[in-house]
Design goal:
The protein has 65 residues and is an all-alpha fold. It contains two helices and no strands.
Length: 65
C-alpha cells in the first residue's frame, strides 16, 4: 500500500510540474502579445505555442483516465 502511495505522489508531482510549466508558458506568451506585438518574432512565438501544446498533450490523458 505504501509503495502505491509513493507512486501516486510521484505522478502527482510530475503533473503539477507540467501544469506549472504550462501556466508559465501561457503567461510569457501573453506578456509578449501585450508588450511586443509590433516586433514579435512569429517563428519563436509559434515555437512557444508548440511547447504549450506538448504540455497539454501530456496533461490531458492523465485527467481523462
Amino acid at each position: 500500500m505504501q509503495r502505491e502511495e509513493k507512486q501516486q505522489d510521484a505522478a502527482l508531482d510530475a503533473i503539477i510540474m507540467r501544469v506549472n510549466d504550462l501556466k508559465n508558458s501561457i503567461g510569457s506568451m501573453l506578456v509578449k502579445l501585450e508588450h511586443e506585438y509590433e516586433t514579435l518574432n512569429w517563428p519563436t512565438f509559434l515555437d512557444n505555442f508548440a511547447l504549450m501544446s506538448g504540455h497539454v498533450s501530456y496533461i490531458l490523458p492523465v485527467y481523462i483516465s
